[in-house]
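ping. complex inputs:
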Amino acid sequence: MRIDVYPSLLGLEPTRLEGRTAIAIDVLRATSVIVTALANGAEAVLPALTPEEAREVAAGLPPGRFLLAGERESRLIPGFDLANSPREYTAGRVAGRVIVLTTTNGTRAIRACEPASAVLVGSFLNAGAVARAAAGEQKPVAIVCAATRGEFDLGDVAAAGAIVAGIRRGFAPGAEPELNDLARAAHDLFDLHRKRLGELLAGTRHGGGLERLGLGGDLPRCAALDSRPVVPWYRQGRITLVP
Amino acid sequence: MRIDVYPSLLGLEPTRLEGRTAIAIDVLRATSVIVTALANGAEAVLPALTPEEAREVAAGLPPGRFLLAGERESRLIPGFDLANSPREYTAGRVAGRVIVLTTTNGTRAIRACEPASAVLVGSFLNAGAVARAAAGEQKPVAIVCAATRGEFDLGDVAAAGAIVAGIRRGFAPGAEPELNDLARAAHDLFDLHRKRLGELLAGTRHGGGLERLGLGGDLPRCAALDSRPVVPWYRQGRITLVP
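pong. complex structure:
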C-alpha cells in the first residue's frame, strides 16, 4: 500500500488518481462544512464549480428540498441560502435537505478527484473515520489538498497528516504503507500540532484571513479532531454517507 | 520583512520574485554541488538549462579553464567532465576553474529566480551563511525549492527551514518576519529533523533513488549543516562568491 499527499491541484495529472482511493481536503472550510452537513442529517451535498452551475443543478431539484450554499471571497453568494461556515449547517437547517455547494477551492478539489476509483471527503472532523474507510478500500491512497489558490496550505496538509497517521495505525510495524515526501511531512506536522489544531489554523494565511473577516469562530469548528466520525463518499455528482 | 517558501516552480509567477531576495535550493544535489565547488576554489559556476546550452557556453570559454558538469537521470552526461556528486568537486579538480553546470531541476530553479533583485544559492551546507546574507539585503525573501519534477521534496523544504530559522534568529521576539504557510512548516520540519539530516535525506523519494543508483555516499555530504559557510550569488549567468 502507498499513500501520496499532493499539496494542491497544480501539476496533479488526472491519470495519477486512476485505480486509487482519493481523499479531498479543504479544512477551511468546504470539506469541514460537508462533513458537518452530512453529520447533521443532510441527505446529500452536490459540489458545483460555479454559482451558475449551482443554480442550474438546483433548478432540476424539487422546490423546498434543496439549499443553495457556498462562498466567493469567503462570503455568502447573493441569493444563496447558506455561506460556507460550519456553524450555519445545523440539523434544523440541513436535515433531510440536499445542499448544492460551490466554493473557491474545495468543491473544485472534490471534482478533480473524479478519475479515482473511490472519492472520500476528509477534514480534521472525520480524519480517523476516513482513514479507516480508505484502508478498507485496499488501494493506493491519494490525498488531495485543495490549497488556497494553489498555495501550500498548512491546515490542509496537517489534516492530510491526521489521515496518514490514522491509516498507518492499522498496519503492523515494518509493514507500514510507503509514503511520498509530503505524506511524511504531513504526518510529522500533524503530530507536532495535534494538541493545538485551532491555533495552527489561526496561524495560517487562510485562517488569519477568515479572522480578519470576523469568521474566526469557524476555526475551532474546523479543528475539532474526530468530532464528526462520518465518511462522505462522492460519486456521480453527489456526496452522501452511502459507500 | 516577510519570508515565503515555494515548494517548486509550479505556479510560481516570475512577478512574485520582483523586488525580493531569492534563494534557490536543490539539496540533492545541484546547490550542494555549487556550494562545494565554490568553497573548494572554483572561480564561478555557470548554470545552463540543457546539455546543449552548457556546450555552447563552454565553447566561448578559454580551453583548459572550464569543466563541463551535470547530470541527466542522476548520471554523468556523455562527454562531460564531472557528474553531479559533491564528492567529485575537490579542490584539486575545481580550484581556479569555471564550472558549466546543467542539472534536471536545480539549474532550472536558479535561472527561474532571475526576476529577483538578488539571487543566492542555498543548501544545508551554507544555510546559516545564506540566512545572514539574505537578512542583510533587507528585502522580502523568497525561498524557491527546485523539487523533483514538480513534486514536493522534503530535503529541499527542510533546508529552506534551516534558512528560515537562521533569518529568524536575527530578529527580536515579536519583531520576527512574517512567514507563509510553507515557511512555517519548513521551520518546523527542520527543527524536528536537524539532528539527523542524513537520515531525513535517505528517507526521501529522491534520496532513496540515489541510494539505489549507488550514490548514497552523496547524502551525508549534502546533509552536513553549515559545513561550507560560503554565500554564492547568481548574477548575469554566473554564480560566484562575490556579492
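Chain A has a mean pLDDT of 97.
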